[in-house]
Design goal:
The chain has helices at about 10-15, 30-40, 95-100, 125-130, 135-140, 160-165, 180-185, 190-220, 220-235, 240-245, 250, 260-270, 280-300, 325-335, 340-350, 355-365, 390-415, 415-430, 435-445, 460-470, 485-495; strands at about 55-60, 65, 70-80, 85-95, 110-120, 145-150. By secondary structure, the protein is an alpha/beta fold.
């Protein structure tokens, strides 16, 4: 085999990179290279010690965080004589990064159990400063976790690691970090894998339906639909405040004569109606003045429903998912007296001549909102082109998680077997939703690939998420005591 210097592609690769992972000013690696070194554990693993001299054992380095917060989540570690534990890991070039980056004041970092750095200078000073912090303030700070310096713990020179790791995709798991079920799952045929995922999806579907039935016994079928539609609009960041709004719907939904009046009321009750004009966006200020004209009239009546603004999360949100915009969309649904009847008619009608997604999308989509089709939030500038208030990916989420389970369990309660079969058929025929971080990690862990093999439809995606909930979330990163790999082997063997 040719040496790297004789291989022209290797020469091109090295020349284009110029060992760019080293910073010229101090010879420090980039933080990204340090993350790759940690993920692939390119370390003298038997020599790892914290700055206070305790041995560090890494049973699993954790999974790259894709939504902010600590760099790695779910690491399995042992420090000194402590029992092994699961915790987060933060990677910084210097130990001073813990405070310089505000980790000590960020509640998202409260699960960090190890601070991995290149240069550990200043650790003792930071600990000393923490000891002098007033007790009242200490309660607001995240404690300084044990620190591990990698500066003299690499298993190869930094330049060599730069060449081999700098282009590694951090979100792709090395072979050694894949789940124990990866091998038996990869042995399944496409048809057998789909059968497994659909079986898991049916469990998830029926569990959701059972939850709807239990709640409907107390509040009725229409109310449970609204509560779960609002939850779905909250995506994952704002599920609970939106559900809270839906739970008080009976108190604030009457008397609004238009979608705009409903928007003003929802934005006021949510605490998301700004108190001041932007003074920069004329269209926003015009809308805001009109909304306040409505809300001034209604506020006293609905004061007991108003949410504190602190319940909302905005960090990491896509503009289209901002709760102000989601509430504006919900207002249009609420203003449509035939909204629920349209869904019921859609279920009863034959849609073979129409795409499933498109036919439901017509019900949920708002043709045009005078303000929100042109703005992401109150503060954003007017968009050059109007944007839909609900994309097809979110319609798929609504269908799989809310609409179809709700329609199916109502058919079960009504003993309408024909309708049950039709709703189930639509569920398993529904096209795949947009990919997300849970699905990507599940495929890497369970299938050992980032491709979408086996995810031909929304039901397969739902099946993957059910497997994660039933097995992965009850084990740890090294699959301790997980029965799923053995169950797959036995199931596949029984079919042979």
């Amino acid at each position: 085999m040719e040496s790297p210097r004789e291989n022209f592609y290797a020469v091109w690769r090295e020349r284009s990179r110029n060992v760019s992972a080293l910073r010229e000013e101090n010879g420090l690696p980039t933080e990204r290279l340090l993350q790759a070194i940690w993920q692939h554990q390119r370390l003298k693993r038997d020599q790892l010690k914290t700055t206070d001299g305790r041995t560090v054992r890494v049973f699993h380095p954790g999974f790259v965080s894709v939504e902010g917060g600590p760099d790695f989540r779910g690491a399995v570690l042992q420090i000194g004589d402590e029992p092994s534990f699961v915790g987060d890991v933060e990677i910084d070039l210097r130990s001073t990064g813990w405070r310089a980056h505000g980790h000590d004041r960020n509640p998202n970092f409260k699960g960090v159990r190890l601070h991995v750095v290149w240069d550990a200078v200043g650790v003792q000073a930071a600990a000393c400063q923490n000891s002098k912090t007033p007790d009242k303030l200490k309660l607001e700070l995240q404690p300084l976790p044990p620190t591990l310096s990698l500066q003299d713990k690499l298993d190869a020179p930094l330049a060599e690691l730069s060449l081999s790791l700098e282009n590694e995709a951090l979100r792709s798991l090395p072979e050694a970090l894949r789940g124990q079920c990866s091998a038996p799952l990869r042995e399944l045929s496409e048809a057998r894998l789909e059968e497994l995922l659909h079986a898991a999806a049916r469990v998830r579907f029926e569990n959701k339906a059972a939850q709807f039935r239990a709640r409907a016994r107390h509040v009725g079928w229409e109310q449970v639909l609204w509560e779960n539609l609002f939850r779905a609009l909250g995506y994952k960041h704002n599920v609970w405040p939106l559900q809270n709004l839906a739970e008080t719907k009976a108190r604030w939904s009457r008397g609004a004569n238009s979608a705009f009046e409903m928007q003003a009321r929802l934005l006021g009750i949510s605490g998301l109606l700004p108190d001041e004009l932007t003074r920069a966006q004329k269209s926003s200020d015009t809308y805001l003045r009109r909304a306040w004209d409505v809300w001034w009239r209604d506020r006293d009546e609905f004061e007991s429903c108003i949410l504190p603004r602190e319940v909302w999360r905005f960090h990491g949100l896509r503009p289209a998912n901002h709760p102000q915009r989601r509430l504006a969309l919900a207002a249009h649904w609420l203003a449509d007296e035939k909204f629920i009847a349209k869904m019921e008619d859609w279920c009863a009608a034959t849609v073979a001549d129409k795409p499933l997604l498109g036919s439901l999308h017509e019900i949920f989509q708002v043709e045009r909102d005078p303000f929100w089709s042109w703005h992401w939030t109150f503060k954003s500038a007017r968009l050059a082109k109007p944007q839909v208030l609900l994309g097809e990916a979110r319609v798929t989420d609504l269908a799989a998680n809310v609409v179809l389970p709700w329609l199916w369990i109502r058919a079960v309660e009504g003993k309408n077997e024909t309708l049950q079969r039709e709703v189930a058929r639509r569920f398993f025929a529904w096209p795949a939703a947009e990919d997300n971080s849970v699905l990507k990690l599940a495929r890497q862990r369970l299938l050992g690939t980032s491709s979408r093999r086996g995810l031909k439809g929304a039901a397969a995606q739902q099946g993957f998420m059910q497997i994660v909930r039933d097995f992965c979330e009850h084990s740890n990163a090294v699959c301790l005591d997980c029965q799923f790999p053995g169950l797959v082997r036995g199931w596949n063997g029984s079919a042979a």
